[in-house]
Specification:
Elements: H1 24-29, H2 39-44, E1 53-75, E2 81-82, E3 87-107, E4 110-131, E5 141-166, E6 169-181, E7 188-203, E8 206-218, E9 221-229, E10 233-243, E11 247-258, E12 261-269, E13 275-284
């Protein structure tokens, strides 16, 4: 049984902008100058605003442990019944994803985005099985097993980022929702919330941002699958599963290496089981 970790991107990091403020002449020449709303007020107060629209390509890796809370099995249309008392199962999941993202600053402090992409999920599931004796007396039989599985599919999602700043320092709050289809009867859904705080300035003449943050992955789902087993019939599996440790910390950085191109990278961890990396390049216009 494959018990994957659904992907959920927490990688909208371009809020409150690294790009320089636009001059009035440049604003008039640019088709996208109608956004963000209220930009005049922000420019009057001395804020440098990024170009309002962006497209990004992103590589995302997530590795973490998955806990299985309950497993149910039904045969030939029977209501699935829990077998957790006989089976203890856990999984380690690794996800590689290639994503594309489009975003827009609706307000100087509010960025909205959509994302989609393709992912590959590889898992190692380990279990401990207890088989009680029914006919012959004696202690139950016990054994352990390990199964490696690989699935792939598509993910779609969207989210929003709020930003605030004081002088060279900033804070952001982000929330995004995604749906992943990797071949189970039901799609996996995920809600990821994160917050970051950091410094926004320049190294020499290079606009740069560095930060530290934390994220919570609300990715508990029920994996359902129906298979035909020769000699048994139609077997329905249900497994309630979620991340063993939903919290993780992160550190990252972003820079404009050549206008209007931006690049960023972020690394996440929790000193337990989580390894997270996101890196990408964005074009703003």
């Amino acid at each position: 049984m494959r018990l994957p970790m659904p992907i959920a991107s927490a990688i909208i990091l371009m809020s409150a902008g690294l790009a320089g403020a636009q001059t009035p002449a440049a604003e008039g020449d640019r088709w996208s100058s109608f956004l963000p709303l209220m930009k005049e007020e922000a420019i009057k107060r001395g804020y440098d605003l990024p170009l309002p629209f962006g497209v990004s390509v992103i590589y995302n890796y997530i590795g973490r442990d998955i806990d299985v809370f309950d497993i149910r099995i039904g045969v030939d249309g029977e209501e699935p019944r829990s077998v957790t008392q006989f089976l203890n199962l856990g999984s380690n999941s690794s996800v590689n994803a290639a994503l594309a993202k489009a975003d827009a600053f609706l307000l100087p402090f509010l960025n909205l985005y959509v994302l989609g992409g393709y992912l590959e999920n590889e898992s190692t599931s380990k279990g401990h099985v207890i088989v009680p004796r029914v006919i012959t007396p004696g202690p139950p039989r016990e054994f352990e097993f390990e199964i490696e599985t690989s699935l792939s599919g598509f993910v779609l999602g969207g989210g929003m980022t709020l930003a605030a700043g004081f002088e060279e320092f900033f804070i952001t709050a982000d929330a995004n929702y995604s749906v992943t289809d990797i071949g189970f009867d039901d799609k996996f859904v995920a809600l990821v919330a994160s917050a970051r705080a950091g410094w926004n300035g320049k190294f020499g003449e290079v606009p740069t941002r560095v930060w530290a943050g934390a994220a919570y992955w609300d990715t508990e789902n029920t994996a359902r699958s129906t298979v035909e087993i020769e000699g048994v019939g139609t077997v329905e599996f249900e497994a309630d599963q979620g991340p063993a440790h939903p919290w993780n910390a992160s550190i990252g950085g972003q820079t404009i290496f050549r206008k209007p191109w931006e690049a960023f990278a972020e690394y996440g961890f929790n000193f337990e089981d989580v390894v997270f990396f996101a890196g990408g390049v964005a074009f703003r216009f």
